[in-house]
Amino acid sequence: MNNDIEFLENVCERMQQVGLVQSKADFSARMLGKGPSYLTSMSARDRKVPDEVMTFLAGQLHNAIFDDDVEILRLNAEAERRERCRTHRTDMLDWLKRHQTTEEKPQERLPTSTNSAPFIQRLVGWLLRGRVVTP
In whole angstroms, how far apart are CA 85 and each of 14, 61, 67, 81, 118? Predict the structure, then answer.
């Protein structure tokens, strides 16, 4: 069997294992720029893979890496924005607690465990199940 075909089949198999492609047909079409039966038919005929196909594969991989880098930057920026919002909300809770303790007529206090793990667990449980769960 042609060494390039074996190599492409190994690449295809690895990409399937990690979920980057669904099948040989998907690999042939998206990663090689050929018809869905390209890899199978080239293997059956023991044909030489043209350099353009390998170049196309390299280009697809480079493009996907670039797209991943852009998405990672976007997600990091979103995570930082959300962390800032969370910090501001925590500050607002602290302000609210201080305000409530300095009033002459104390009002109902917020739970003091708003920053504790049990509170977070109940909140996550509520968000996931639609109700508050008790520890």
Answer: 40, 36, 27, 6, 21
Angle in degrees, 0-180, between the axes of helices 38-45 and 3-17, rounded to the nearest 10 = 150
Instruction: Tell me the pTM.
Output: 0.63
DSSP string, 41-67: HHHHHTPPPPHHHHHHHHHHHHHHHHH
Alpha helices in the chain (DSSP H): 3-17, 24-26, 38-45, 51-102, 117-129
- The pLDDT-based confidence of 113 (bands split at 50, 70, 90) is very low
**How far is residue 45 from each of residues 26, 27, 41, 70, measured CA to CA in Å?**
20, 18, 6, 40
Q: How far apart are CA 133 and CA 34, in angstroms?
A: 53
Token duo for residue 53: 């196909």
64, 19 Cβ separation under 8 angstroms: no
Q: For 27-62, how does the pLDDT look when each residue is reduced to its tens digit (9 = 90+)? A: 999 999 999 999 999 988 878 899 999 999 999 999
Cα–Cα dist 15/32, whole Å: 13
Question: What is each CA distance from 39 to 4, 57, 117, in whole angstroms?
Answer: 11, 13, 53
